[in-house]
Amino acid sequence: MTRLLFFATIFLVSCCCFSQPNYLVSINTNPSKGNLFFQTGGSPVKPVSILDSSGTELFWADWGLKGWDFKVNKNNKLTYFDRSSKAWYVMDSLKNVVDSVYCLNGYVADNHDFIALENGNYILFAYDEQPYAMDTVVSGGDPNAVVEGLIIQELDSNHNLLFQWSSWDHFNVTDNVTLDLTNASIPFIHCNSIDIDVDGHLLISSRNLDEITKIHRTNGEIIWRWGGAKNQFALLGNDYPFSRQHCLRSLGGNRYLLFDNGNYSNQYTGTSKFSRAIEYLLDTVNMTAEKTWEFVHPDSLYSPTISSVQRLPSGNTLIDFGNLQLSNMGSVVCEVDSNGQIVFEMRFNNGQNLYRAHKFDWFFTFSGCMDTSACNFDSTANTPDASCLYATFSYDTIVASGSYFWNGNTLTSSGDYSILLTNSVGCDSTAFLNLSISNSTSILQNHSIPKTIVKIVDVLGRQTKAVKNKLLFYIYNDGSIEKRVILE
To answer: What residues does 388 pair with on adjacent strands?
Structure first.
């Protein structure tokens, strides 16, 4: 009950300051196990949310500007970005913030992606704006231009710098062939995701370069460049290059999954622009890239910015078409099987964009008694503890001389007595007394009384007859109690 009141209090206090996401679950046919994690964008500020696999809300909280890229990271803890302090926060399953991570050396962490590793290390990146005399690079360039580079840092668990990579040492502003290099501001890279390949090296997605880059995690050298003007891979089959992509993820075995926003897809397909989730197999010997799987929504959804994709343990794929404002929609999150069949879909109203949506078999730890037979059973608990309480029964058979003091009263008559003992969690206990009052001068004389059954009771203390296949308590006149089960 306490936990339910807590959530109710959050709603009553906070509902005036933000609005909950408005969504419709349009398809729900046996999706994968797990909970959905997201924070919708737009104004007013939206809460972070966790939904179960059917779309039922399990948790939401107003964290203000905190909550961007709300997900379970590689260290099995929640992480999210605070757009106010420019830090990544780490939260355990008890909802304790256990760390906050900032870029070092004067750089300001970017909000696009963050890795919290199992060994306690962190990988994050920052945009690095520098003055650049672009008139020395291109005709008509601005001599006072500001060009945006990229800094990647790896920190240990104590926030000591282990590795730093700078794009200024490896990329040239002319690598970008789509931006106007005569502009005053040139964000020519715009990294939007980072991952670790199975060999331990880094992978980055640079939206404005239309490029995926693999970087050596020790010496910082570029291992390969895929996509964009500096592409090193030949595309096999009947396919076309990705453009303005997001959310690159390594699947192992040189297989890579990404969300192709498809900003230039119309140039290759001759149709209206559309987005897709796509998986590639890279041959790093022959330097080829082959499409092995893709999903295009039946409605040809086009999300020119943000969006995400995630391969689930079941083999299904979760896809977030995060910005559908050009279609007067908010966003669409769908889960598809390996054949491209939609098994789950939820649609958000216009103005409610989703930077990313993730699915994890994870939830906050709520410890409590999970035994339904206990009187303090907690239906909200998902982790058992040692708090279970059970109703108890005590049985006494007493032979007393003249009178007997019990439960604050002096008893002078033989008979059966009982008292109900209650506690704060409603765990009622019952004490039973079978009293025989004797006028004999010596109670010891009663020890010669033959041992006989006074009564038989069940586990709830109810008097009963001897029955088979049921646990019963046999109470004797000498005060002893015997548990019996008479089998067929």
So the answer is: none
Asked if 277 and 309 touch (Cβ cutoff 8 Å), the reply is yes
pLDDT of residue 14: 35
Q: Are 198 and 144 in contact (CB under 8 A)?
A: no
CA distances 460 to 32, 347, 358, 433, 473, Å, are 43, 52, 48, 15, 10
| DSSP at 208 | G
Q: What is the pLDDT of residue 455?
A: 83
Q: Would you say residue 13 has pLDDT above 90?
A: no
Average pLDDT of the chain, as a whole number: 90
Nearest to 94 by CA among 318, 347, 368: 368
Locate 282 and state its tokens: 């890279």
For the record, the structure tokens of 201 come out as 């090296």
Residue that wins the pLDDT comparison between 36 and 460: 36
| Residue ranges per structural domain of the chain | 2-368, 383-485
Q: Is the pLDDT of residue 388 over 80?
A: yes
Q: For residue 61, what are the CA distances in angstroms to 6, 345, 484? A: 11, 23, 53
75's tokens: 């260290």
Please say whether the beta carbons of 326 and 13 come within 8 A. no
Tell the burial category of 296 from Cβ atoms under 10 Å away from its Cβ (0-12, 13-18, 19+): middle
DSSP 8-state class, residue 12 = H
Radius of gyration, CA atoms only, the chain: 34
- Please state, in angstroms and rounded to a whole number, the distance separating the CA atoms of residues 488 and 476: 24
| pLDDT score of 463 | 84
> Which residues are bridge partners to 483 per DSSP?
473
Element (H, E) at 132: strand 122-132
The architecture that CATH gives domain 2-368 is 7 Propeller (2.130)
Tell which residue, 217, 113, 117, has the closest CA to residue 165. Answer: 217
The sign of the torsion formed by the CA atoms of 138, 144, 148, 151 equals positive
- Model pLDDT, residue 443: 39
- Entry field: residues in the chain: 488
What's the mean pLDDT in 298-326? Answer: 98
Cis peptide bond N-terminal to 450, omega within 30: no
Name the amino acid, one letter, at 320: D
